[in-house]
C-alpha cells in the first residue's frame, strides 16, 4: 500500500470514528454529562501517557513540555487550549445525550467557516470574494434558524466557535499531537478528579455503583478520544491538504444521518432551509480552496 492509500485510510478512519462518536456517548445515557466529560479527560490522560511511554517518546514529550512552559505566551496558550477543548467536549456530550445531535452536526459544518473568519480577525488574512460569499451564506443559515425557532442554535455555535478558537490557539503551539493532548488532559484531570470526588461524596458517582458495563465504557473514553486523533495525525502527514479539506465533512454528515435516522431527531423544513444555506456556503468554500490550490 502506497503512502497516499495509507493516508486516505487513516483520514477516513479518523473522520468516520468522529462521525459515529454520538453512538458511544449514547451508551452512557444514564451518566451525568459532566461525569462523562471528567472520565474522558482522566482516561485520555492515562491512555496517552501509556502511548508516550510504550512508543519511547517520553524524552520528546519532556523536551516539548520544557519548550512550551519556558515562555509565558506558549504556556498560557496551552492552558487556554485545555479549557477551550473542555468546553467543546462538554457541549458535544451534553448535546448528544439531550437530543441535539442534529445541532452538533450543524456546528461542525459551520466550523471551517468560523476558522476562516478567525483567520481574518486575528491573523490578518484576507478573504477572496467567494470566501466572503461563503461566510455570508453561513450567517444567513444561522439567521434562518433563529427566525424559525426564535432562539440561537447555541449548541451549533458553541461547538463551531470553541473548535475554531482551539485551532487558532494551537497555531501558537508547534508541538506533536501526543504532547498536546497529553498536556491538555493533564491540565484538566485534577479538576475532573475533584468533581468525581464530589460526586462520590454525594453518592451519585457511577464509579461507586459497581456497574462493570458502565465503568468499562467510561474507561474506554480514553481510547475513543485518542485513536481518531492519532489516525488523523497520520493521515494529515500523508495526504494533500485539499483531500483533508474534503474528508472533514464526512464527520458531520454521518452525525446528521445518525441524529435523524437512528435517534429520530426532527429534521423539518426549517432545518432543511438552514442546512441548505450552510451547504451552499461550504460548496463555495471548497471551490475557493480548490482554486487557490
- Main sheet? none
Give the structural class: mainly alpha
Secondary structure: helix percent: over 70%
Query: Approximately how much beta-strand content do the residues carry?
Result: under 5%
User: Helices and strands, in N-to-C order?
Assistant: HHHHHHHHHHHHH
Q: Count of helices?
A: 13
Shape: globular
User: How many angstroms does the end-to-end distance come to?
Assistant: 26 Å
The radius of gyration over CA amounts to 20 Å
Give the averaged pLDDT, no decimals: 89
- Uncertain segments: none
Total number of beta strands: 0
Sum up the structure in keywords.
293 residues, globular
Q: What's this entry about, in short?
A:
The protein is mainly α and 293 residues long. It has 13 helices and no strands.
Descriptive overview:
The protein has 293 residues and is mostly helical. It has helices at residues 3-19, 21-26, 33-54, 58-69, 72-96, 101-123, 129-149, 154-170, 177-202, 212-238, 241-247, 250-262, 269-292. The mean pLDDT is 89.
Topology (elements, then pairings):
Blueprint: H1 3-19, H2 21-26, H3 33-54, H4 58-69, H5 72-96, H6 101-123, H7 129-149, H8 154-170, H9 177-202, H10 212-238, H11 241-247, H12 250-262, H13 269-292
Helix pairs in contact: 1-10, 1-12, 3-5, 3-9, 3-10, 5-8, 5-9, 6-7, 6-8, 6-12, 6-13, 7-13
